[in-house]
Amino acid sequence: MSARPARQTLIPNANNVRLLARLVELVARGVRDNRTLAMLLDCEVRTVNYYTQAGDWLNLLSTDEKTLQPTLTRLGTEYAFAGKDRGRVYARAVWQNPFVVQLMDGRTKLPDSTGIAQFIHCLLYTSPSPRDRQKSR
Q1: How far apart are CA 29 and CA 105, in angstroms?
Q2: DSSP one-letter string for 15-84
Q3: 7, 76, 110, 114: which has the fewest C-beta neighbours closer than 10 Å?
Q4: What does the angle CA 126 – CA 130 – CA 135 come to, to the nearest 5 degrees?
């Protein structure tokens, strides 16, 4: 059985920027426990997991693999306390994400949904598996 990919490399199942912002704010205030985060955010623990993964994906959070407790990264701290500049920090997080960097390589504008789907398909089906990468070393 192959090792599970790192959380920050998986495309997150989170689509509410406001919920992510609230989660980051709570982590900035010292809340780390997923059950407490779920209670304060009025959602389920699995939703907290989706959003901490999104925070990891954007390099706003660093989540401990064993405890699943999030902490802020340097960029996450900047985002949490950015005030009116929060949108700019979020945009920087998006454009620094390795997935987005690869997606935009050689492009001057965002691809349409078909282009994005083709890109994801290539990532899923043409990238060597971790086992294959180890064999090639």
Answers
A1: 37
A2: --HHHHHHHHHHHHTT---HHHHHHHHTS-HHHHHHHHHHHHHTTSEEE-TTT--EEE-HHHHHHHT-GG
A3: 114
A4: 100
CA distance 2 to 89: 35
Q: For the segment 60-111, what is each residue's pLDDT rounded down to a tens digit?
A: 999 998 998 999 999 999 999 999 999 999 999 999 998 888 888 888 888 8
* 3-class DSSP state of 131: helix
The pTM (predicted TM-score) of the whole model is 0.78
- Residue 46 phi, psi (nearest 5): -65, -30
Single-letter amino acid code for the residue at 65: E
CA 121 to CA 130: how far, in whole Å?
17
| CA–CA gap between residue 7 and residue 109 (Å, rounded) | 27
